[in-house]
Specification:
With about 300 residues, the protein is an alpha/beta fold. It is built from ten helices and twelve strands. Strands 6, 7, 8, 9, 10, 11 and 12 form a seven-stranded mixed β-sheet that branches. Strands 1-2-3-5-4 form a five-stranded antiparallel β-sheet.
Amino acid sequence: NSRKLLAEVTDIDLDKEAFPFMSWKEGLVGGVPARVFRISFTGELSYEVNVQADYALGVWEQIIEAGKIRMIPVLLTASACVLGMIPLAVGFNIDFASLFSTGNPHIYFGGASEGALEMGAAECDVFAIYAEPRTTTAERIADFRARAAKLGRTVGFNMSVRPILAETEGAAWDKARSILARMSGKLGWSRQEGGRLPVDNAGKRQFAFAEQSEIHDERLWMGITKATGALGNTSCLVGTPAQVADAILAYYRLGIGSFLMRGFDPVNDAREYGRELIPLIKAGALEIDRAAKAG
């Protein structure tokens, strides 16, 4: 379905021989210049469409409309990416009735360039950021709220972070160093550009924090951020489940309303987060909300 859908709005040859997995092409998508990748977290038969940030919603809407007209099920995900570009990952199936029964999906947007911030303030529902020191997080929230308010809008905030948990704080730090050691030499990830320095504004911001200090705010660890050149979501919170929950709740108090958490051992980390971490976060958030209402 992803190939059929994308073919409705692009001049790029999507034939599997002409456009194999782990390759990319340039062309027009929705009438605007784009880079299309089949190097995707969404699977082998899916695409990431990168367009200039201020074209993103127009392209999004054209893809949605094409799917509705041709009755092709589609789910789009969007996030800000390199140099104010936005990838629209096209691939997973979802029924249109469920997608549109409660209105359009919320748009999560992230970026650090001036153009991305302007576009996001005008269009997004939730501004997504990587975990960074609490002081600068508060400043980012205040700045983006002010940008949105000038346009008569209110927005939510989401934070991406990688918790590293253990029964004791010392064991958690040992676990973190072990993860980093496995990434030295041949990295677990590699950039398309082949280098270790950030190429996008969000990455440059994260890398600057990593260069300032390996650890911020007691347990915000930037070791992997520095080792990988700030490649995506690499900010880590290290400690016991209670310590990491407290750190996440500190961000919640600042105005971060939701969190995207992922680890380095997906199955085991998901179990650990579900059993040990998320219940503490939920209970703490409820207590914060009750106190705010009472006070």
